[in-house]
Amino acid sequence: MEQRNNRYQFQSAPFEASVRHLNQRHLRPQTSSQNSCHDIIESLFSRLSVSHHNGQPSFPASYGDLFVGSALDHPSVGGQPISFQGMGQNLQNNGVNACLSMGLHDYVSYPDMLGSNIDFWDSFIPDVNGLLRADSSGFSNGSINGYLLPKSQNSVRSSLYNKRPHRLQESSNYLPLENLRGRILRFAKDQNGCRLLQSILGSVTQEGIDMVFLEVIDYVGELMLDPFGNYVVQKLVEVCSEEQRTQILLTVTKSEFQLVRICLNMHGTRAVQKLLERITSQQQVSVVMSALSLGAVALAKDMNGQHVIKHCLEHFSDENNKYLLNVVADNCFEIATDKSGCCILQQCVEFSKGEARDRLVAEITANALLLAEDGYGNYVVQHLLGLKVPQITANLLRQLEGSYAALACNKYGSNVVEKCLFESREEQSTQIIWELLGSPNASMLLVDSFGNYVIQSALLVSKVV
């Protein structure tokens, strides 16, 4: 290597050993294609320069700018600064891609640097333009112009390998949106690509927004469910026009239950909530509520879906929520006995007003006895008692009358009886106590694992009386 015009003047022993190692590995007869490949490799290595600064290894303090289309200013390997300037352009212009498949990794593997191998071959993957870019697991998040950047493999190496850059810094300056035409959907589903699109959408003109919108509108439902694509949809919803927002709504409600299925997804529910935040016209609200009402029960019983219902209750009018609340009331028992459903049912009671609320309360009251003995339903009954509305309390007490002794011995019902004692008026609590004392099994309440707490609460109320 050193006899060929002294192209490689390495000043460090590790690099000399590495080059010698490469020579020994490839001392075999070479074909014309291999000679061509060697010439290209030599051309690449001719652009490498290694130097010491005052005899000390150089470590860049930061490399936040060492990516996305620019030559490396101060990178180092094994503490030795290396210049990669122009290397990426050389790769594009000299057809090295063909050589890569022939074993370029055999030539750019540096053994025993700081006690381990650095294999640059594994650090590069083809980008969406068919060029080579650094793998996202390396210290670079990729090169849009085709520059090759190494991947970190050892935490004890210099800070160049141990730190990660702030991704997508000034991304839109390096890659105009026009260059992504026809690739928007693919970028939206990529971890780095979705961040790039969000960055671009934050500062692009209306023309650029229209371009992105046209490429994703037919796939917006699919993107809402994607771990990365949903963020692009959320950003697009923020910047698009009212008309485009309406078109997104119509797309995700085109088929029955499509919007409901999106709401049930952990990624989709975020995108839908962002969409609901931005809708303003009555037409948009009507489209959404008609679609959600079809799956109100499924949404109420789902951990992700319940957030969408809660958002509607908090931000839409009683008139808009009327159909949704009617479906919830019709399926009150099923929803109240579900872990997630019992929570959202309490929210429905809390936020509803007028006729919709009266119907909801009436349905809960009608099922109060069964709900009081349920592990989740008892919380709904207690919530109604906690409202301290005299008429609601009186109706509930009347529904439970004659069953207080049995409920007192139930794990969940005993909590309801105690709530009745504390939240009712004096004459009402007195009536409950007389019913407990007049029960044939009154003496058993004292030794029952749940009934004894009811008796203690009755004594507290009696003292107050």
Question: Describe it for me?
Answer:
The chain is 57% helix and 4% strand. By secondary structure, it is mainly alpha-helical. It has a domain at 13-162. The strands form three sheets. Strands 1-2 form a two-stranded antiparallel sheet. It has a two-stranded antiparallel ribbon with strand order 3-4. The protein has a two-stranded antiparallel sheet with strand order 5-6. 34% of the residues are buried. Pumilio repeats lie at residues 179-214, 215-251, 254-290, 326-362, 363-398, 399-435. GO terms for molecular function: mRNA binding. It comes from Hevea brasiliensis (Para rubber tree). InterPro entries: ARM-like (IPR011989), ARM-type_fold (IPR016024), PUM-HD (IPR033133), Pumilio_RNA-bd (IPR033712), Pumilio_RNA-bd_rpt (IPR001313).
